Each structure stands twice: as C-alpha cells, then as structure tokens.
Amino acid sequence: MPLPTVQQAADIDLAAAGDDIAARWRQVPAEAVALVNELVATGRFTAGEVLDQAVDAATQTGLLALTQTHDAPDPSTAAKLCLGAVPHLVLAISLASADLD
Length: 101
What we know:
Blueprint lengths: L5 H22 L1 H13 L5 H21 L7 H22 L5
C-alpha cells in the first residue's frame, strides 16, 4: 500500500482533529479552542476548516444515532432514540456558531 500524499495526510490529520475537537468541546471548551489555535498556528489549516471538520464529526454522530430509529418497534421507542441524537446535534450547532476571535 503506498504512503499517503501530502494532501491526503493533511486531510487525515484534519479529520482526526475534528473528532478530537468535538470531543473536547463537550468536556472542556477551552482545551478545544487551544487545540484549534495550535492547528491554525502550524499554517496548515484555518480556524474555519478545523471547526467545520468538528461540526461534521458531531453531525455525523448525531445522524448515526438517528438511524437507529428505523428499527424501533414502536413510535415511543423511536422518539426515545431520537433524543439520543440531540446532544450531538446541539454540539454541532455550538461548534458551527463558535467565534474564536
């Protein structure tokens, strides 16, 4: 298997950073902001790119939670499963509206 190109390696780093930032934002937002600033300082990414990736990570997790409703045996169970997606979608909104300035 060939090694990733420079661009592919950057994309992999960005995706991993998005997951990490989303997880940190939920627990300790200041740590997430510091990580964003560290990544921006490398000159490889902009704050917008990093935050967009974190939004994508949170949104995808929320959407995955919603897919479980398809197999729910009844509407009440489906509604409960939908509630499981809410924290992830709220996190995505929080990240999308973040102003790091």
